[in-house]
Amino acid sequence: MENILFKKSYLLNNFKEVKYNDLWNKKGIFTTIRVIGRPYCLYLFNQHLKNLNYSLKKFGINASLSKRKICKIINNLFNKKTTYDHLFRVAINSNILSLSLRTRVKPQKKFFASIALYQRPDYKYKNLNYRKILNYISKINTASKEILLVNKNYLLEGCTTNLLFIKKNKIYIPKEGYYPGITLKFFLKKIKSFIVKQNIHINKLKDFEEIILLGTGKGVVSLSEIKDLNWKRKQNIYYKKLLNFYNKSL
Predict the structure, then answer these.
(1) Which one in 35, 139, 152, 243 has a CA-CA gap of 20 to 30 Å to 43?
(2) What is the pLDDT of residue 13?
(3) pLDDT at position 163, please?
């Protein structure tokens, strides 16, 4: 059960508080931001906000959210005496702003995955059409498992993560068919010279020594095994390097 610290909704035209609406499966965009420390810090906040507003425009929604406005709202919601490691969700449609804060579930060391034959609609944007994703997530322990999405026998992404595939000292990511999250974009700027873009067929998975999950909630996670595809981790060298880099950036 998720530990929710607050749930709030506001009208976009005047920011008057209204009854909470999570906006799931409405036409809109959302982002989830990691909140850490005391006083609280919104990790990669500028990148999340820029991407949110860009996606709203591309999704045909005449709305945007300024840093000044959201900071004014949340300063009354966060406790400056609390040490945070939480996930802050911001969702917007054409007239409602929805905010919520929940405790971050820390990933376990032994982490597994199974597959689902599904590709998210409008996958280029973090849109609120999440009925199937939420259904997948509701059936697993997210502290120790992720669902990997597969389309036409190619691995795309996790329900809440992006995928890195390690082979012979190179890092592979899919060319297309998935949403490139903020955590992935952060790493791509740092390790661009090591990246190879190549769609990953499930029959070729045995060639890869590591599979790493990246996401706001998960951080950096090394997959132990994908039983559905008979894949097991052979090493975790790159995982340790990326995790160390990530932790230093927090």
Answers:
(1) 139
(2) 92
(3) 98
> Which CATH number describes the domain made up of 4-103?
3.30.470.10
Q: Which of 250, 237, 106, 121 is nearest to 183 (CA)?
A: 250
Chain centroid to CA 46: 16
What would the two tokens of residue 249 be?
């950036």
User: Which parts of the chain register pLDDT below 70?
Assistant: 1-2
Q: How far apart are CA 210 and CA 220, in angstroms?
A: 12
Per-residue pLDDT reduced to its tens digit, 124-171: 999 999 999 999 999 999 999 999 999 999 999 999 999 999 999 999
SS3 breakdown of the chain: % helix, strand, coil, rounded to 5?
Answer: 25, 35, 40
Pull the structure tokens for residue 20.
């909470």
Pairing verdict, β 170-173 and 231-232: unpaired
Topology of the domain comprising 112-249: D-amino Acid Aminotransferase; Chain A, domain 2 (3.20.10)
Residues in the chain: 250
d(CA 36, CA 57): 29
- Domain parsing of the chain, residue ranges: 4-103, 112-249
pLDDT for 82: 94
How many Cβ atoms sit within 10 Å of the Cβ of residue 140?
A: 15
Instruction: Give whole-number Cα distances, 239 to 67, 163, 227, in Å.
Output: 33, 12, 20
Per the CB < 8 A criterion, the answer to whether 48 and 132 are in contact is no
**Rounded Cα gap, residues 237 and 210, in angstroms:** 8
Helix 182-191 vs helix 237-249: crossing angle, to nearest 10: 110
- What is the identity of the amino acid at 87? L
